[in-house]
Write a structure and sequence with these properties.
By secondary structure, the chain is α+β, with helices and mostly antiparallel strands. It has a single domain, classed as 3-Layer(aba) Sandwich (Beta-lactamase), CATH 3.40.710. The protein has 13 helices and 14 strands. An 8-stranded mixed sheet has the order 2-6-5-14-13-12-11-10, sandwiched between helices. A 4-stranded antiparallel sheet has the order 1-8-9-7. A two-stranded antiparallel sheet has the order 3-4. Strand 13 and strand 14 form a beta hairpin.
């Protein structure tokens, strides 16, 4: 690990360019073992050279310029399971797992579907049925479904640049930031169990809160009686034919950061997207994927944080439904991580980046248009 990269600076340029594919050298992590069979892609190359599209403001853009301006490090595009584009840059060659931040939430939501299908996890049960430690917190009287769909009423604020407030406390509990001088160490589960409830009822407003997805990882472990990493490996990563071990960051108790700590190869992220496009390939429950694509509360979405991103969209089980005619749905992570799935055009796009801003609406809207254009061009 570059010795100039620290817990204080690893999410900011220029350090992030190295840190984002060397996270396990900075933060404790546990492997998600692969079969190393490498579900093989056939190749049908399309060049990015000269590829243009019109962004959300109607401006024509060169896609190669967009890759540079959004600090893209890896891009993999599949059409009908064939790899039609693969690109790496900025000192990254795609051979080490890259952090996917909140795309981790969507992978975790898919894992939850397996437990729901087996009857181990009930979306309509109270969270406290599985985790009595959260009684009295924001999660004490909410349902598993509220956690899945980001409709938990909580006073927590998702503020990525907050260093001293509740979000800073959250990052320190997950070992993503160094402790403050004299601060008593706190685990992620301890922190989750103390989050205070909001004044509104659960289930009415989409409110994007990362702790909900770490709580989902806790729910998965409690419902299954197994560690998340082994379960994800045995039920998804190995059967899927991932070519490389993934890994996930953990706290002092080895609790997994399922909200944002998963690190994977871009090719394996694309494989995951192709599995979703194909209805689970017998690995994930097809009805769960159909539920992700078809359901979700549009009224709660319209009242929520990201309605400008997808005006006709919804959110279901940690996945975004675009509301587009293509039926595109996706997973999104800060600093420019994307998994875009277009069922109509049979296209999957996986993108990893070290974008300087954690979130940027203009960049996101531009990228959405670029994904739509790529899907049309290659199909």
């Amino acid at each position: 690990m570059n010795t100039s990269v620290t817990l204080d600076n690893w999410r900011t340029p220029p350090y992030s360019a190295h840190a984002f594919h060397n996270v396990d050298k900075l933060i404790p992590a546990v492997p998600i073992k692969a079969s190393h069979s490498g579900w093989a892609f056939s190749i049908a190359r399309h060049s990015l050279e000269g590829f243009t599209f019109h962004d959300h403001l109607g401006k024509e853009r060169q896609f190669t310029d967009v890759l540079a301006s959004t600090d893209t490090r890896g891009l993999v595009v599949l059409h009908q399971g064939r790899m039609v584009m693969e690109w790496y840059g900025g000192g990254y060659d795609g051979t080490r797992p890259h952090i996917i931040f909140s795309v981790s939430k969507s992978l975790t939501g898919a894992m939850a579907g397996i437990l729901v299908d087996s009857g181990q996890l009930d979306p309509d049960s109270l969270v406290a049925t599985y985790i009595p430690e959260v009684e009295g917190s924001a999660y004490g009287d909410c349902l598993v479904r509220h956690v899945l769909d980001m409709t938990v009423s909580s006073s927590f604020v998702e503020e990525y640049v907050d260093l001293s407030g509740e979000y800073g406390r959250y990052r320190r509990a997950t070992l993503w930031s160094p402790p403050l001088p004299g601060e008593e160490p706190e685990t992620m589960h301890d922190m989750l169990a103390t989050l205070s409830r909001g004044s509104a009822p659960h289930g009415q407003v989409f409110k994007y809160l990362s702790p909900n997805s770490d709580l989902l990882g806790w729910l998965i472990e409690r419902a299954s009686g197994k560690e998340f990493t082994g379960l994800f490996s045995d039920l998804i990563w190995k059967p899927m034919g991932a070519e490389s071990d993934a890994y996930i960051t953990v706290d002092a108790e080895r609790s997994p950061r399922t909200a944002g700590g998963i690190c994977v190869l871009p090719r394996d992220l694309a494989r995951f997207g192709e599995m979703m496009r194909l209805g689970g390939k017998g690995i994930l429950p097809s009805w769960w994927i159909e539920d992700i694509r078809s359901n979700g509360d549009s009224t709660a979405w319209q009242k929520g944080d990201f309605a400008n991103l997808f005006p006709d969209g919804r959110y279901r089980s940690k996945w975004y439904q675009s509301g587009f005619a293509s039926g595109a749905f996706c997973a999104i992570g800060i600093h420019g991580q994307w998994l875009w799935i277009d069922p109509k055009r049979e296209v999957v796009i996986a993108k990893v980046s070290n974008q300087s801003d954690p979130e940027n609406d203009d960049i996101d809207l531009m990228l959405i248009q670029s994904f739509e254009a790529i899907a049309k061009a290659v199909s």
